[in-house]
Design brief:
Layout (H helix, E strand, L loop, with lengths): L2 E7 L5 E7 L3 H10 L3 E7 L7 H8 L4 H16 L4 H11 L3 H15 L4 H6 L7 H13 L2 H58 L5 H13 L2 H23 L1 H13 L3 H22 L4 H10 L4 H15 L4 H8 L4 H13 L2 H57 L1
Antiparallel strand pairs: 1-2, 1-3
Length: about 400
């Protein structure tokens, strides 16, 4: 059972620091209240004990799907008139994700102490990001929390569907690539040496291609070489991460992603759909436009697009239009810019953004299908080429030996 450290004041107004063992923050607060302590701050005492549950929780992430399910269930409870504290308590008990479960328990304890729901959620950025907190805050201020939660659930479900489409597009080439590598290494390490021994017994002059493949086989059978290769891969990955962590590296790589054949178009359409869906949901929920653009900028997923959104935000501060600012950077499709411009002129920007999001989500789905259909024969050719190179290297000497014998 975890131990909680509380700082508060007793009935005489003196500041006290107390420790209490409890199963959750809410129980700890109740126990300390019974002792006459008015709590000002409550934290769980951290120890250096090896706790598998803590390690598991640290490695667990809260997915978009987890947040979407929670938002949908929470919206239903709020709409039914269930009190916030009771609703969050029920959902925390049923939550299968341990990290989200603990965050909900903490949020429930804070709400019981009079903290607003949005402020309580903002203390757990790994579970509730800035977008989520801003929408909840708008729902609290406008008195339409259930409606905002439903919109948030729809937004998260759309984002999750978009992510799944992209993952499905990458699943096939990644699987085939791994299969090709495993087959190539297995045949090179275990099959080629057997034929090499036969060729040595026949004292045959091996073709150049066969000698190259045998040298690769010898290289792969040395454990030290594997250590060197793994070290090189880890080093390259580490150098790439360090470079991408810099401003120039992030800009250059993200700009390159937008220019890649096939994939660049998919990245652009995905970013456009995400921008329009998120911006439209924020605007429709009553979040100020400058705050909405700041949130959308942080969730764009591409530095070049984030910079373009930031420039658009600066243009609006000086009286400019979003569409004109985005058009200058040319990171969004021309049709999306025109539709956003029409939305600004007619005063129905949020509705137009939703229509653009629907359109480009369909475009992403079609692009994913097209990309998959293109990648399938390409990957089959790669797999066949890798396996065929092994077979050719084995049979070329046999053909030469037959010629000599003949």
């Amino acid at each position: 059972m975890p131990t909680y450290v509380a700082i508060g004041r007793d009935s005489a107004g003196r500041e006290r620091k107390e420790k209490v063992a409890a199963s959750n923050p809410s129980e700890a607060r109740n126990l300390l209240k019974d002792q006459g302590l008015f709590i000002q701050d409550l934290k769980e005492e951290r120890s250096f004990n090896f706790d598998l549950n803590e390690i598991k929780m640290a490695m667990t992430s809260v997915s978009v799907k987890d947040k979407a399910v929670f938002s949908r269930q929470f919206a239903a409870l709020v709409n039914a008139g269930v009190a916030l504290v009771r609703g969050i308590g029920v959902l925390s008990e049923e939550c299968p994700n341990p990290k989200l479960k603990r965050a909900l328990e903490d949020v429930n304890a804070d709400v019981q102490q009079g903290t607003s729901l949005s402020d309580s959620m903002s203390k757990h950025p790994s579970c509730f990001d800035k977008l989520y907190v801003s929408l909840v805050q708008a729902g609290e201020v406008g008195g339409v929390l259930d409606e905002v939660l439903n919109r948030l659930a729809k937004l998260l479900e759309d984002l999750n569907r978009l992510q799944n489409q992209i993952k499905s597009a990458m699943a096939y080439p990644v699987t085939v690539s791994l299969l090709a590598i495993v087959i190539f290494i297995s045949m090179t390490v275990f099959l080629l040496p057997t034929f090499a021994e036969i060729f040595e017994e026949l004292d045959a002059q091996l073709p150049l291609f066969t000698r190259i493949m045998l040298q690769i086989s010898v290289f792969l059978r040395q454990p030290l070489n594997w250590v060197i290769m793994i070290g090189i891969i880890v080093g390259v990955a580490f150098a790439f991460r360090r470079y991408y962590a810099t401003d120039s590296g992030e800009q250059n790589i993200d700009r390159l992603l937008l220019k890649l054949p096939l994939f660049g178009d998919l990245v652009q359409k995905t970013a456009t759909a995400r921008f329009c869906r998120t911006f439209g949901s924020l605007s429709r929920s009553g979040v100020p436009i400058l705050t909405s653009l700041e949130i959308v900028r942080d969730t764009a997923g591409n530095r070049v697009i984030s910079d373009a959104i930031d420039e658009a935000r600066n243009e609006i501060q000086t009286g400019g239009m979003i569409s004109l600012a985005l058009q200058q950077h040319r990171v969004f499709p021309a049709m999306a810019i025109q539709m956003i411009s029409i939305g600004e002129e007619t005063g129905e920007l949020d509705q137009m953004l939703m229509k653009v999001a629907d359109f480009y989500e369909d475009e992403v789905e079609q692009a994913v299908k097209a990309l998959t259909s293109i990648m399938e024969p390409f990957m089959i050719v790669i797999l066949g080429g890798m396996v065929g190179s092994i077979l050719v290297s084995m049979y070329l000497p046999m053909f030469k030996i037959m010629e000599v014998v003949g």
